[in-house]
Specification:
alpha+beta, 4-stranded mixed beta sheet, 4 strands, globular
């Protein structure tokens, strides 16, 4: 499984999503896009926009999101940590 979270330093929504994922012990790769042209370009190509946090779960993109939407997305994807 490939799980990438694109973030920007100082973004409160990014911090919220990262905190959620860490609290649920979800493994992911964080790609901070400020100052990293390759990551920023990758974010734009995958999502069609420049806003973060953006998730890429095996090619399934959730762009410009927040913790509530991430919870629903991962629940729908079958992550046990988010099942009721």
């Amino acid at each position: 499984m490939s799980f990438i979270v694109y973030t920007k330093r100082g973004c409160p929504w990014c911090e919220e999503v990262l905190t959620l994922l860490h609290s649920k012990n979800i493994s992911f790769e964080e790609r901070e896009v400020l100052g990293k042209v390759a990551y920023f370009t990758e974010l734009q190509q995958k999502s069609g926009q420049t806003k973060v946090p953006t998730l890429d779960l095996d090619g399934d993109i959730l762009a410009d999101t927040d913790a509530q939407a991430v919870t629903l997305f991962l629940r729908k994807k079958g992550f046990q940590q988010f099942q009721s």
